[in-house]
Write a structure and sequence with these properties.
- The chain is an alpha/beta fold.
- It has 2 domains: 274 residues, TIM Barrel (Alpha-Beta Barrel), CATH 3.20.20.80; 101 residues, Golgi alpha-mannosidase II (Immunoglobulin-like), CATH 2.60.40.1180.
- The protein is built from 13 helices and 16 strands.
- It has an 8-stranded parallel beta barrel, surrounded by 5 helices.
- The longest helix has 28 residues.
- It is globular, with a radius of gyration of 26 Å.
- The N and C termini lie far apart (70 Å).
């Protein structure tokens, strides 16, 4: 019995060793992306949750949110403008005028910047009424399937528990705001991302340098150890940027990482940008047995779009794109909250632009700017509620869909351009398509008044299957239609949903 017992134990031990060996071999076989763009392009894969989710909320919030809400236009860059002439090289004449006005206002309202610097605003940023669970629940109700709060903006202040001295745990709110967002996202069953805007920081505070003194705590905040003009070639800054970003990734393990500003390149920055990005993806691959579950996004329009998810900030594409991309727009009118700011985009145009982006393989990211106390301004909440009312009816044509053979048709010209998003009203002649499970969704981007003619869906055209049935999302009404070489004609429904855009679902045989 004794020998048999040991024999069985030996077999179990041997079996365990074999299993461990197999797991070790499996671990070794997990692909690893090399820190170069060729490897990134060959291996980057957009996870389905991102393509399926379609709608996200970006959140700009921080120290500048707590400054007097009646301040003049600051272009979301109060920290650099308050110190005088625009600190960015090549600034426009209008930029200088905006800066001059803000500097004068700051001096009158708070005192000369030499006496009242940006650091004095940090204690006023308290987030006293910040309720992340309620906010995220509201965002989800309004259609969002992921959120992406800013973790660090150009002002060099971290909204999380970082190793950097200036952070929201040690100062201001005295709480880990990014962890709060993450907990709320997961509690509400949606994905969580972070956005860092750190890289511009030495340049951002260029004009603040004249007031800084060695040995003060502010020396670190204003990046006095880095060259405001030549920081991109400074190893110390590029390494610091990498460490700050990696600290954020490692501590919070986000589903999405957005780098809003440039990054250390291969010529001046020893490739630390692509190293961080590949490390981020490899970290994910290691955790998920070689399957990518995260999204990497940034704004470099010159880089191979197969290597990352392109963030087309406040811009649009004229044509359908091969790779998924992000249309990032702003509902606050200023990125960061300012009472006098408002978006120039009407709700019908916002909805039309969102559908246009989705039809062209895009994902929609709507930015909100919270008040300093952590509450959502009512003007932005009104827009989100309107979007909620629309997507609650038409979501079947949005979530889980993919672009069709062609994106659509119509007279309104959409131009491929960054910072050039459409502000013009759509008509009922502007049509966009999506597809899912073999069905075709037809969005009419303004409520039709006398029926709809879709020329793209003419008989013997690109629609190579017969139509079985057509229904209108949000209605039980029987839809009458006919098809010929001129197009697909849908008779005017008697009871249209009272929405800026409507969606017909075409079931094919």
């Amino acid at each position: 019995m004794y020998n048999l017992k040991h024999f069985v134990t030996g077999l179990l031990f041997a079996s365990t060793l074999i299993t461990l060996g197999q797991n070790e071999q499996k671990f070794k076989e997990v692909k690893k992306i090399a820190p170069n763009w060729e490897s990134m392009a060959a291996n980057y894969e957009v996870p389905e949750w991102f393509e399926d989710g379609k709608i996200g909320i970006w959140v700009h919030w921080g120290v500048s949110s707590a400054i007097d809400e009646n301040r003049p236009h600051d272009g979301s860059h109060y920290g650099r403008r308050m110190y005088g002439e625009a600190g960015y090289l090549g600034a426009s004449e209008g930029d200088f005028r905006t800066t001059k006005e803000l500097t004068e206002w700051h001096t009158e309202r708070y005192g000369n910047p030499s006496q009242f610097g940006y650091e004095k605003f940090i204690p006023t940023f308290k987030a006293a009424h910040f309720k992340p669970e309620e906010l995220v629940a509201f965002f989800k109700e309004c259609g969002a399937r992921f959120i992406m709060p800013v973790a660090t903006h150009h002002d060099n202040f971290d909204l999380y528990d970082s190793f950097f001295s200036y952070n929201s745990v040690k100062m201001g709110p005295k709480r880990d705001l990014i962890q709060d967002w993450k907990d709320a996202a997961y509690n509400n069953g949606i994905k969580f991302g972070v956005s860092t805007h750190l890289y511009w920081s030495p340049r951002f505070f260029n004009t603040a340098r004249q007031y800084q003194k060695p040995g003060t705590p502010e020396w670190e905040l204003f990046n006095m150890d880095y060259d405001p003009k030549g920081f991109a070639s400074q190893d110390s800054w590029n390494e610091h940027w990498y460490k700050r970003c990696w600290d954020l990734i490692e501590k919070y393990n986000p589903d999405m990482f957005n780098n809003d500003s440039p990054y250390p390149d291969e010529k001046k920055g020893k490739g630390l940008g692509v190293k961080l990005f590949s490390d981020f993806l490899n970290h994910d691959l290691k955790q998920n047995n070689g399957k990518q579950t995260t999204v990497l996004s940034f704004k470099n329009q010159k880089e191979n779009k197969a290597a990352f998810t392109y963030n087309l900030e406040r811009g649009m594409f004229a044509e359908k794109q091969e790779y998924p991309w992000m249309w990032a727009t702003d509902l606050s009118g200023n990125w960061f909250y300012r009472k006098g700011a408002k978006t120039k985009m009407s709700v019908p145009v916002l909805i039309g632009n969102a559908v246009d982006a989705i039809s062209k393989n895009g994902v929609v990211m709507m930015n909100v700017g919270l008040k300093g106390d952590g509450t959502l301004p009512e003007a932005q909440a009104i827009i989100l509620r309107a979007f909620r009312d629309w997507i609650s009816i038409n979501g079947d044509g949005v979530y889980g869909t993919r672009p069709w053979k062609v994106y659509g048709e119509g007279p309104l010209e959409i131009v491929t351009k960054r910072t050039g998003e459409n502000l013009k009203e759509y008509s009922d002649k502007d049509i966009r398509f999506t597809t899912k499970n073999g069905d075709l969704y037809v969005f009419v981007l303004a409520a039709p008044t006398e029926g709809v003619l879709i020329k793209t869906l003419k008989s013997k055209g690109v629609l190579n299957k017969e139509i079985k049935d057509i229904s209108l999302l949000g209605s039980n009404e029987k839809i009458n239609w006919s098809q010929n070489i001129g197009g697909l004609s849908i008779n005017q429904p008697k009871g249209l949903p009272k929405q800026p855009a409507v969606c017909f679902k075409i079931t094919l045989k």
